[in-house]
Amino acid sequence: MAIPIAGTPTLRLRVDPPRSRLTLRVPLASEVEPPVNTLAHVAVEVRIDGNQRFLEISTTDERLVVDGHAMLMAVADRIQLDGIEPVEALEQTLATWETILASRVRLTLQAEVGLVGELLVLRAMLDTAAAGASAWRGGLSEEHDFGFADVDVEVKTTTSEQRRHWIHGLGQLVPTGDSPLWLLSVQLTRAGEGDGHRLPELIDDLRTRVSGADRAILDQSVAAAGWSDDQRDLVTDRWRLRTPPVAFHVADDFPRLTPDLLAAASIDVAPLRQVTYEVELTGRPASSDPPATVATIIKDLGKAFDD
């Protein structure tokens, strides 16, 4: 059944119930080529009827009968009401629908776990007044995650039963200036219902603890780490500490790759564009005499294991 669509130029909507298919037929100039179609359930074809070329846009999935009709009518309105050429009208309509119906993007699991680990450290830091929120460098592309008066700290978080951590880049375990560098190893595991922390709840909790410039730093840092509040319902896992955190002094005996170490081995690092490696710290004893700030944070995070 072909239904004329009133207006100029004359368009037709063909309804094919047995195949649950809708087709919009549009006159097409002889010199115009159809667009490349990247959609799985929309067909775009050129037909010749007599001496006239037509562009036929069809839905090919029965689930698109209702929504596909709205899309085809949007194409028809652009052609008849806005005077847009058929191919451009189709491209504009599909671009609009793709934008409106774009999938929401949530943090990767690795990014979520890493952010939870850093926020737990931040909460312990605020609870003990070890430092203000400005000490957290979060996702701001600084050398290390936390910069305190007495030490820089790189927080590494894993969900593995082993204390294994990924190091990103040759500079991540290089001390900055005269500040000693410590790595704080955090192990998380999924918690039961009502136990542990969901990432959005943890962010909300921290927002209640800071204000003014510190609140701005918190919001800026979680955003730089990839968080936005429209992900709240997509992030459902609850996390708790698997073990008490352990701190390691990143000194000469710590396993790592750095530009200086590779240069000492006569390895030219200039051609190395990306370096990522995993460090196995399972069974490695914690470094003794951590700086006061690190010791305070470890003690606060370890309270859950005191019983």
| Beta strand count | 13
In quaternary terms, these chains amount to: single chain
Question: Helix/strand/pairing class, anyone?
Answer: alpha+beta
Could you tell me the radius of gyration in angstroms?
A: 29 Å
* Order of helical and strand elements: EEEEEHHHEEEEEHHEEHEH
Average of the residue pLDDT scores: 90
The best one-word shape is elongated
What percentage of residues falls in helices of 4 or more residues?
25-40%
Unreliably modeled segments:
none
Beta-strand residue fraction: 15-25%
Q: Helical stretch count?
A: 7
**Main pleated sheet:** 6 strands, mixed
Q: Can you tell me the number of structural domains? A: 2
User: Termini distance?
Assistant: 76 Å
Protein name: PD-(D/E)XK motif protein
Organism: Svornostia abyssi
InterPro entries: DUF4420
Pfam family, one: DUF4420
Describe the structure.
It is a single chain. The chain has 307 residues and is α+β, with helices and mostly antiparallel strands. It has two domains: 2-100, no CATH class; 109-305, no CATH class. Helix content is 29%, strand content 24%. It has seven helices and 13 strands. The strands form three sheets. Strands 6, 7, 9, 10, 11 and 12 form a six-stranded mixed beta sheet that branches. It has a five-stranded antiparallel beta sheet with strand order 1-2-3-5-4, covered by helices on one side. A two-stranded antiparallel sheet has the order 8-13. A hairpin with a 5-residue loop joins strand 1 and strand 2. Helix 3 (109-127) packs parallel to helix 4, helix 3 (109-127) packs across helix 7 (292-301) and helix 4 (199-209) packs antiparallel against helix 5. It starts with a strand and ends in a 6-residue tail after the last helix. This is PD-(D/E)XK motif protein. InterPro entries: DUF4420. It comes from Svornostia abyssi.
